[in-house]
Amino acid sequence: MSFHPSMAAFLACAMVFTSNMAMAQDDSLRQRLKNRLAQRQQAKADAANVSINQAGDHRFTLAHDGLMRLYRIHVPASYTPQTPAPLLVALHGGGGNMDYQADDSKYGLITKSEQAGFVVVFPNGYSRFENGKLATWNAGNCCGAARDAQVDDTGFIRAVVAQVTTRMNIDRKRIFATGMSNGAMMSYRLACEMADVFTAIAAVAGTDNTRQCQPSRPVSVLHIHAKNDTHVLFEGGAGPDSVNKSAVTDYVSVADTVSKWGKLNGCNASAQRTLNKPGATCDVVAPCLGGTQLELCVTQSGGHSWPGGQKSRGDEAPSQAISANDVMWDFFSRQTLPASGSAPRH
User: Fold this and answer.
1) Mean pLDDT for the chain?
2) Phi, psi of 186 (to 5 degrees)
3) Where do the domains of the chain lie?
4) Does domain 33-218+242-263+326-333 have CATH number 1.10.3470?
């Protein structure tokens, strides 16, 4: 089959035109994709710096160490940008998530935030799922996938605090951490590695299972634990109700945890009993270095739970002899940065 010369020229021109059109379309598509990517990156940058002036609940994502992480913030009605507010970082237990820890019917932290006027941020631990469920914290020797994947949870929480302090007027001398179970263990790691940020921590039902600990300055520590905890045993070890033993560790005891922080904080004073009531006691050692304090509150019942809270599952209801929220905020309210410490760095 042959073509007339003029037809061949026409076809050649058409092929060139079509090829040029395709190339133009490819270039146009690439440019649109580049523009869209740039817009998304800019939107993320803008979101990272947006100010929060409105009370209520706010949710954010944060890209850190190659992972897309989540956190949410509750701002109390009393917050005003003109007045620096205290900040509490609240860490959920292993297998939980930020929404569970923020559930006021279980932990009551939203109600306490409104009463006391502090901002509370709920970071989400490492999860294999986009919705953030079944999350854990890399607290050193525990726990689960976060530990096994050596996730940089300390860096993530440092980035969260940096974002929150950019978005809001936060009193950097009053930044605190608390946590339940695996979250409590993570709060101990924060005290070890982020003493430049956190003035004090309150650990509930989770001991110090860090692999190394060299805080840059003293950090006040409150530990709350049930004598009959069947997950993180008071005397040490993983209890009969612990999850898969390979996902946890042979937990450090409450006594060894408190003793460790007494040494780290240079506590030489004798413990003073400040609470003695049916079902609960509290003992305080103060002052320690830099004016820090060390406090231990023990409930006789409640098992592995948040005192004063509610539990939707499990055999034993939380102890109501004390409120973890009330005890910790009373403790935090007594703390200031050590006189020898420098301002927090982010």
Assistant:
1) 89
2) -65, -35
3) 33-218+242-263+326-333
4) no
